[in-house]
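Open question from group meeting: does this chain pack into something compact, or does most of it stay loose? Before anyone orders reagents, we agreed to write out a predicted structure and look at it together. Recording both the input and the output here so the notebook holds the full record.
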Amino acid sequence: MTKNRCTWAPEDDLLYRDYHDNEWGRPVHDDQKLFEMLILEGAQAGLSWITILRRRENYRKAFDEFDPTIIKNYDEDTIQLLLTNEGIIRNERKIRSVVSNAKAFLKIQEEFGSFDTYIWSFVGGEPLLNHRKSSEDVPAQTEISQAMSKDLKKRGFNFVGPTICYAYMQATGMVNDHTEDCFLYVE
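Structure tokens returned:
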């Protein structure tokens, strides 16, 4: 039986469908997973999400399972090696941003006790349930994602513009933007 899904998750693309059904919009509170998603959303800048989703396992291997305590120590040799890795997007600015973002991430953990506490404070600790009739009703950014972007940049993060932050909020379940006709809308 076919389930109604958000239109961006085509029925015939199993990877997209699985991501939609099992990850997107589900609240994430694990710091390492929150870091991973922030890095992947930044890697997506200027690209389609499916491009990144298809390379996610390569990213995990290339970036030490997104362990910021390891990534913060990447040296120039490591960066140059990453620039030759065909399994990831070989954009130098994006690769270098992973290292600086790891350092900024660890500072937030130190200040707030966890990145989860910090990032979820933008939505008051609870997911925001939106009422979208169709995917066309979903904004590219909101006042909250603009505030998040501004604060993350102030703290040393890169590739965290307001549109990336809103996509991040959707991906980590801070907002529920499943459309009203999607079977996941009521969850």
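Observations to bring back to the group:
The domain at 14-176 is CATH 1.10.340.30 (Endonuclease III; domain 1).
The chain has ten helices and two strands.
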